[in-house]
Amino acid sequence: MQCGFTPSAKKIWESYTEDVRAWLLNNVWCSHCREISAMDAVFGKIESGLLMLRGRCTRCGGNVVRVTGTPKARFLFYKFLVNRKIKDLLEAHTPKFP
After folding, report:
1. Which helix (H) or strand (E) holds 97?
2. For FRET with 84, which of 1, 7, 75, 97 sits at 20 to 30 Å CA-CA?
């Protein structure tokens, strides 16, 4: 399998364990096959704070993409979820006045 990564993407990619990397590469949705497949000829780069893996479906050769969060993106998403949960809890327990 031929792979290429930008330096920042490579740093993120190498932070994942081998089993996580294998899972990411072997569980991609192919819109051509219309089912889960594996990808090869992978190129990775950071786009909008996310690690984008682009490659070919091993079944049909069509283009596939796998998006995974960088640690910063995962932190920001987690922070968003926590803030949303706090807001929902406050709204649920705040008395409504006419």
Report:
1. none
2. 97
